[in-house]
Amino acid sequence: MGDFSRGGEGRAAEGVRALNHDMSPEAVLVPFGVLELNRGAVPIHQPWFLFGRSRETSDFLADGLDLWWQERKAVHPGVTRLHVELDNGPEIGSSRTQFLNRMVGFVDRHRVAVELVYLPPCHSKYNPIERCWGILERHWNGALLSSVADVLRWAGTMTWRGLRPIIRETTAVYERGVRLTKAAFRPIAARLTRSRTLPKWSLTIQPKGLGR
């Protein structure tokens, strides 16, 4: 955040004055997004964005997913399985012990199966959420994002297929490098049902007591 130019054009009568270097930002916000694609009788294409003030870690991303489902599961009654497409980033990879540990906890807490499907490297452009980020970039280019309030306000005024995103913020502090030991990860690994043909790219976690 800061009075920096990111390209784009303003719509006011006078041009927006901005700094031409962004060496020392006022702060940095970390984005996390979920794009709901429910193609049922009443299709839902709802973007949900969380902005954090700490770091992009496995715990930040897992907390974001947990907060999203806590808020949105009432909109999807009867859902027993979530199909989650991910961009294979380093903090959410299918070998990231802490992320998988958190996902097992998510599944048991919410009693919903989760299928994690990873896109290959350099293919995140096929993830629909990336189009949302692109629209957001075009939407707020030309504006000054000088404060947290400015970021949240501009993010909340973009539209995706006629819908405005749900915007949330967290001030939680996250530590990098949280990992499980091999011994601690064994019971977590036992809960993962990996695809026979694409074990690195597709896995499913069932709630405890419901079998594999």
Alpha carbon gyration radius: 19 Å
The SSE order reads EEHEHEHHEHEE
Please state the structural category.
alpha/beta
Proportion in helices: 25-40%
Q: Going across the biggest sheet, name each strand in turn.
A: 3-4-7-6
Can you count the beta strands? Answer: 7
Sketch the major β-sheet.
Answer: 4 strands, mixed
Structure described in brief:
The chain is α/β, with parallel strands linked by helices and 212 residues long.
Structural commentary:
Strand 6 (192-194) and strand 7 form a beta hairpin. The protein has 212 residues and is of the alpha/beta class. It has helices spanning 58-72, 97-110, 128-140, 148-156, 182-189, and strands at 30-35, 47-52, 81-86, 113-118, 166-170, 192-194, 202-205. The model has no long low-confidence stretch (mean pLDDT 89). The strands form two sheets. A four-stranded mixed beta sheet has the order 3-4-7-6. It has a three-stranded mixed beta sheet with strand order 1-2-5, sandwiched between helices. The chain is globular, with a radius of gyration of 19 Å. Helix 1 packs parallel to helix 2. It is 28% helix and 17% strand. It has five helices and seven strands; from the N terminus they run ββαβαβααβαββ.
